[in-house]
Write a structure and sequence with these properties.
The complex is a heterodimer of chains A (about 160) and B (about 210). With about 160 residues, chain A is mostly helical. Chain A is built from six helices and no strands. Residues about 25-30 of chain A have low confidence and may be disordered. By secondary structure, chain B is of the alpha/beta class. The chains are: A mainly alpha (about 160), B alpha/beta (about 210).
C-alpha cells in the first residue's frame, strides 16, 4: 500500500511540474520574430493567419509560425513576399501547395482518399447506436419469475432473522 | 446469431491489426514530391565561386544531370560527398545547388568569401563531384523545388524535366534502386539521339 501511494505521489507531482513548466514557458514557444513591415493591417492579419495554417514540411507537426527550422524561416519570408506583391490568402496557399503538396496546409482537401476522415467517426457512431439498439436487454418472463422467487426467498430469510 | 456475434468483431479486429501493422513500416516523413515530372523551375543564379557567371535553365538542356542540393554546414552532405565523387569519376554529371544557412539574406552574418573558402576546404578534403555549383542566394529555387533540407538529389533529363527527387543521402543502395535504371535509360537515349543526328546529316548531304 505504501508503495502504491508513493508512486501515485510521484505521478501527481510530475504531472503538476509538467503543467507548471508548460504555463511558464508557453510564451517562449513562438520562434524568433522577424521584423516585417506590412503596408496594410489586412496584410499583417493575413500573414499571422497564414503562418499558423501552413505546416512546416520538415518538422513533425509544427506550423511555420512556431518552427525555427530554416525552411520555416524561408517560407515565412516567401509568405511575406507574396502578400506584399498583392496575393491574397488563397493564392499563397496555392503557391505553397504547388511546391510542398497538400501536406503543407493544415486543412486537408476533401477527396476520395480523405473523405473517410469525416465519414468514419459518424459510421462508428451509427454502428454503436445500432449495436446498443439491438442488444437492449429484454426482461423476459422467466427472468421475472426467477426474480420473484428470489425476492420471496429473501423475505423469508428476513422473517426468520426477526 | 452466435456466428455474427463472434465473426464481426473478429473481422473488425483483424482489419485493425492489418491497418496498424502496415503503419509500423510506413515512413511518416515520406511524401510525394510535387516537383516530379515537371520542368525545372526557371532560375537565374550566380556561380558560387564566380558570381559574375549567371546560370539559367540552359545548363540542363541536352544533358542528363544530377542536381545535388547541399551545403558545407550539412553533416549528411559530407557523408555522401565521397560517393558522389566516385560516381562523377564514372562519368555522372553532378551540378550543385548550394545554399548556406548562415548566410541569411536578411541578416547576412557570413561573407561570401568565407563561404567559398569553406566549400573549397570541404571539397578538397572529401572530393568534388560538381562540374559547378549554382548559388541559390535567397533559397528561392530550393523553395520552388519543394526542397525541405539538405541533402536532396534530383535527376534532370535532357529536356530539363525532373525525373527523380530523392530526399536524404545518396548511397550505393539508393543509386542502384532509385537512380541507376532511369539514368542508364536516359543516357542510352542521349547516345542514340547524338549518333543518329550526324547520320541524318550525312543522309541529307547527297
Amino acid at each position: 500500500m505504501n508503495h502504491l501511494t508513493r508512486s501515485l505521489f510521484i505521478i501527481v507531482s510530475m504531472w503538476s511540474l509538467l503543467t507548471l513548466s508548460g504555463l511558464l514557458f508557453s510564451h517562449d514557444v513562438q520562434a524568433t520574430q522577424e521584423n516585417y513591415a506590412f503596408a496594410t493591417e489586412q496584410q499583417r492579419q493575413d500573414f499571422k493567419r497564414l503562418t499558423k495554417e501552413l505546416r512546416c514540411p520538415m518538422c513533425q507537426n509544427q506550423n511555420i509560425a512556431d518552427s525555427d527550422a530554416m525552411i520555416a524561416h524561408d517560407m515565412r519570408r516567401k509568405v511575406y513576399q507574396l502578400l506584399s506583391q498583392g496575393n491574397d490568402h488563397d493564392q499563397v496557399i496555392d503557391f505553397m501547395k504547388q511546391r510542398y503538396g497538400d501536406f503543407v496546409y493544415y486543412q486537408p482537401p476533401v477527396n476520395n482518399s480523405t473523405i473517410w476522415l469525416w465519414l468514419l467517426p459518424f459510421s462508428v457512431l451509427l454502428i454503436g447506436a445500432w449495436i446498443l439498439f439491438k442488444r437492449r436487454p429484454e426482461i423476459s418472463h422467466t427472468d421475472e419469475q426467477v426474480e420473484a422467487d428470489l425476492l420471496a426467498k429473501a423475505d423469508e430469510m428476513l422473517e426468520k432473522d426477526k | 446469431m452466435i456466428n455474427t456475434r463472434f465473426v464481426v468483431p473478429l473481422v473488425a479486429f483483424t482489419a485493425l491489426v492489418f491497418f496498424l501493422y502496415q503503419g509500423l513500416f510506413s515512413d511518416p516523413r515520406e511524401r510525394e514530391s510535387q516537383a516530379l515530372a515537371k520542368p525545372m523551375p526557371t532560375f537565374s543564379l550566380p556561380d558560387l565561386m564566380e558570381p559574375s557567371v549567371i546560370y539559367t535553365n540552359d545548363v540542363f538542356t541536352d544533358q542528363v544531370t544530377l542536381l545535388n542540393i547541399w551545403g558545407v554546414w550539412c553533416v549528411t552532405c559530407a557523408v555522401e560527398l565521397p560517393y558522389l565523387t566516385e560516381l562523377s569519376q564514372q562519368g555522372v554529371r553532378f551540378v550543385g545547388l548550394y545554399y548556406d544557412q548562415d548566410l541569411d539574406p536578411d541578416f547576412g552574418t557570413k561573407t561570401l568569401a568565407r563561404v567559398q573558402q569553406e566549400v573549397i576546404e570541404t571539397t578538397n578534403q572529401l572530393g568534388n563531384p560538381f562540374v559547378f555549383n549554382i548559388f541559390d542566394v535567397y533559397r528561392d529555387t530550393s523553395l520552388d523545388l519543394g526542397v525541405t533540407g539538405a541533402p536532396e538529389t534530383l535527376l534532370i533529363d535532357q529536356q530539363g524535366v525532373i525525373r527523380v527527387h530523392h530526399i536524404g543521402d545518396l548511397n550505393p543502395r539508393v543509386w542502384d534502386s532509385k537512380f541507376a535504371p532511369l539514368y542508364n535509360e536516359l543516357m542510352a537515349q542521349l547516345v542514340t539521339s547524338v549518333s543518329t543526328q550526324p547520320a541524318k546529316q550525312q543522309e541529307d548531304k547527297p
